[in-house]
Amino acid sequence: MKLVHAAYEPGGAGPHPTIIAMHGWGSNALDLIGLAPYIAAGRFLVLCPQGPLDVSIGAVNGYGWYQLRPGSPPDEAAMAEAVGRMTAFIDDAATRYPIDTKRLVILGFSQGGVMAYNIAMRDPARFAALVALSTWFPDGLAELTNDRAALERMPTLVQHGRADEAIEIGRARKSVERIRALDIPVVYHEYDCGHEITVDMLEDLTKFLNEKVPGSGTQ
């Protein structure tokens, strides 16, 4: 597998319901993996790949999925290249890990959420659910899919903090409008928090997964 990644495997032989979780700008593969035991009581296999782009933020080094351009939309070619890397990662993961490919969830936080939207829009039939945390749905994504029927079967959870200082709440609300216009079944929650993932968000995420991903709830 060409991307550095962290993995959490639940007990048992599998195949397991699986979450592919992508971090935000300037973070790394370890950023989200600590949440895995608290999502649906640790029943999901969780894979957290690391973005291939080196990012320097002051004294801290991290990673990103594509170069950010403040005040401008993402570069489409750079994003397409990043999506290609992630698609190859998912393909490789399906052969290396005990993944139940019928219960595969794509999740992203911040820039990772933009990636999750891109990947899901290109191949919605591949995913049992989409989760977008503290992120936005860029212009033009609706044109990436040729499978509207699959979009209408892909449950989607969007979570955002009302005090998000990095991606203001209006962008999340606009994103939900675009998602609903595609007839994607979306659940949207706002929280009294900033650019972060809170306990309340994890509880709502667990409820969503238990309800929407077949067989992922308590047996």
Structural account:
With 219 residues, the chain is an alpha/beta fold. The chain has a single domain, classed as 3-Layer(aba) Sandwich (Rossmann fold), CATH 3.40.50.1820. 29% of the residues lie in helices and 25% in strands. The protein contains five helices and nine strands; from the N terminus they run βββββαβαβαβαβα. The protein has helices spanning 76-96, 111-122, 148-151, 169-181, 199-212; strands at 5-8, 16-22, 45-49, 53-57, 60-64, 99-109, 129-133, 156-161, 186-191. It has a seven-stranded mixed β-sheet with strand order 1-3-2-6-7-8-9, with helices on both faces. The protein has a two-stranded antiparallel ribbon with strand order 4-5. A hairpin with a 2-residue loop joins strand 4 (53-57) and strand 5. The longest helix has 21 residues, at 76-96. The radius of gyration is 16 Å and the shape is globular.
Keywords, separated by commas or semicolons:
two-stranded antiparallel ribbon, Rossmann fold, 219 residues, 5 helices, globular, seven-stranded mixed sheet, 25% strand, alpha/beta
Question: What is the CATH H-level superfamily?
Answer: Alpha/Beta hydrolase fold, catalytic domain
So how many helices? 5
> What percent strand?
15-25%
Structural class: alpha/beta
Number of strands: 9
**Morphology:** globular
The termini sit apart by 32 Å
Largest sheet: 7 strands, mixed
CATH-derived topology = Rossmann fold
User: What is the CA-based Rg, rounded?
Assistant: 16 Å
